[in-house]
Amino acid sequence: MNYYKLFEQENGEVEERLELYRERIRAISTENSVAEPFLGYFVKVADFIEKMYELSEIIKSEKDRDYSLEQLQKLNASLYEDIAGAAYEQSYANPSYAVEKLGEEYGAVLSFLYTEIRGMIVYAYEGRMLEFSMMAELFIEIYNLFEQEELLSLKEVKSVLYWFVSDYSDVTVTYRIREQLDPSLNFATDIITKADLNDLRYLYYYGEYITDTELKTAEFLNTLDEETVEKIASAYTEGYRIGFINGNKDLSKKKVVNIRYSVGFERIIKKAIENFEKMGLQPAIYRAAVHTVNKRKHIKIGYFSTSPNKQYDYDHRADDALYLDKAFVERKLGVLRTAYEEYKELASVHGGPACMEIFGEEPFVPENKSSALQLSEKQQKLSVQYNNAAGEITNTYIKGEERSFTIIAFPIPEIGEQFEEIFREVIKINTLDYKLYQNIQQRIIETLDKGEYVEILGKGENKTNLKVALQPVKDVTKETKFENCVADVNIPVGEVFTSPKLSGTTGLLHVTKVYLNELCYHNIEVEFKDGMIADYTCTNFEKEEDNKKYIKENVLYNHETLPMGEFAIGTNTTAYMAAAKYNINDKLPILIAEKTGPHFAVGDTCYSWSEDTKVYNPDGREIVAKDNEVSILRKEDISKAYFNCHTDITIPYDELKEIAVVTADGERISIIQDGRFVLEGCEDLNKPFDNY
Fold it and tell me: Tell me, what DSSP letter sits at residue 665?
């Protein structure tokens, strides 16, 4: 489908304005009404906008469908040429360069403007000319301010940007909610289901940045036989279906599934769509946000391709510092409520996300730039308040106790020369015999259920010394503290987990090196007192204040503290040893890494928003440890119960001295010693160690 036809009516309403804006922007390169150094900036951005007009004409006429692969590659490279690789160092999208050229007062603000304007790439490909016109209008308005004889104050420039983001949130936020819920917005679905996936030109129809990663991934998947593709897709979709069954949730009430994936995996996603349709589910597939008002820091949620520059994403993670205040929070929450109310019927039949993640990228350690916009302490608190309130609104319309999810992960070619071999190994890992693990994990759970607390000790350089208190069980024949996770929502198999009792959960969690949400942490330390984070640090930066800020922003999500929402023991030694075999331990996604040792989640529990839904293990016992002392506050004041984040931190087996259960009468039962399972009945888990 040509998306310009889908938005034909609203595009027609802005057509005349768009032409007027284009004429005005074209004239900028011949004018001298703005003094240097700002003139160079405005001419550069004006040239980019003209390129976007030309792009929109190509996409609307579908001329790109006749382009050769080489022509599409040339076009794609031209869209991202000034932020990709080393070119970013001299791009106005780089706040450091912008500050250097335009001064400290205006540099970061004008860098923000250009970054927002770069969203026009997406608007051109998706035919969203209303948003396209909004960006052209904003650019002209800011340019006019700089034309005045006396340069306006920074406050006045910021005011224009503030009201632009606020006033147009009716459009930007509302559309974001709609595309998360509405299968008729089928831009990506059409590419997946209607394009010839053997013709790799299809990758360029998204408008995403395309590299060898996407090309080689798609090319490799096209070599797989149909049976293998079906096996991968079925593991993914069956995990979603079984998630509803195990959670005692009625899938028949749902009509929509949100599919999230990385560009290049279309052959698998196409088969997954077919599988979901057999369940009565239509796909709602949306792109990772490009507008600041819909972003969540540097994290991409939706579908996306390789980032042109991860430092670029990181530099603009706090662009909302330009407009985040109490009035804006109230405004955005109001729009959010109105949008959900408008699409409440679609929201009620939304089943939750099915996520296919990737791993293998080159490790990214960001540079902290003083030139980038930063949230003040007051804004950090406002951000937390907004996320909490937004979570409540979302749960009102997409009820946590009725939805589910699933997550699976596969490597990409960046992982190294053995990509194809590693990919096939991961297929095996993602389709392991769950019955074997179910029985072994049941043995571990029976032991854990005897315990009053669990003690975790690190070895070597790992300084972990942690005591995790366990919830009480009234009747061990009918109730249990731990869930037996056997590859339903979390693929692959291999963990038992619980919501720990906060009171009595105390000590130090330490990992020498770990990747969380694509960011690397060296020697991360988190200290707990009665289940709450009391202190934290790492050794990424020379200054301690930078280390603390890094963790607060990206692990605590600007909360002052978080509870330990989950304690789990991973049992997938097969995945652990495969990672060791190919030397990719540092590239494993948390989805797999969490199964390769004990992990501790900070934030909400695994049962947030659905604590009252009864959940049973395969042995028929009900899991009763779903709340903790914070989440239970939902019964008094829901705003105090949730944090809208959940980050797993895993200790690898080789950094473990011991995991032991301690009973009420003082008996100590070891589960793991020196990285190996020593509990009777768990011998099979050590076979991968021995085989390697």
Answer: T
Asked, for residue 413, whether it belongs to a domain, the answer is no
**Contacting residues for 16 by C-beta, under 8 A, at least 6 apart:** none
* 292 neighbors 113 (Cβ within 8 angstroms): no
The answer as to whether 419 is a domain residue is no
Tell me, yes or no, if the pTM score tops 0.70: yes
- The per-residue pLDDT for 692 is 65
Nearest alpha carbon to residue 287 among 319, 263, 270, 311: 263
From the list 445, 447, 440, the residue with the least C-alpha distance to 496 is 445
The whole-number average pLDDT for the span 107-112 is 98
Looking at the structure of the chain, the number of domains it has is 3
| 195 in the same domain as 162 | no
Q: What residue type is assigned to position 324 of the chain?
A: L
Q: What is the pLDDT of residues 173-211, one digit of tens each?
A: 999 999 999 999 999 999 999 999 999 999 999 999 999
What are the tens digits of pLDDT across the range 595-640? 999 999 999 999 998 898 888 998 999 999 999 999 999 999 888 9
- Enumerate the β-bridge partners of residue 329: none
Tokens of residue 314, six digits: 């990181």
Which two structure tokens, joined as six digits, stand for 239?
């995990």
Picking from 167, 190, 223, the residue at the C-terminal end of a domain is: 167
Q: Are residues 257 and 379 in the same domain?
A: yes
Concatenating the DSSP letter of every residue in 210-259 gives: --HHHHHHHHHHTTS-HHHHHHHHHHHHHHHHHHHHHTT--GGG--EEEE
Q: How many residues does the chain have?
A: 692
| Same domain, residue pair 524 and 624 | yes
Measure Cα distances from 446 to 82, 451, 621, 671 in Å: 58, 9, 11, 12
Question: Mean pLDDT across the stretch 251-280?
Answer: 98
194 and 152 in a common domain: no
With a cut of 70, say whether residue 453 has pLDDT above it: yes
Indicate whether 152 and 58 sit together in one domain.
yes
Question: Do residues 170 and 176 touch, judged by C-beta distance below 8 A?
Answer: no
Three-state secondary structure call for residue 460 = coil
Do 235 and 116 belong to one domain?
no
Tokens of 552: 């607060």
Query: Scanning the structure block, which residue is given the tokens 């030309």?
Result: 54
Q: What percent of the chain has pLDDT over 70?
A: 99
Gap between the Cα atoms of 486 and 239, Å rounded:
10
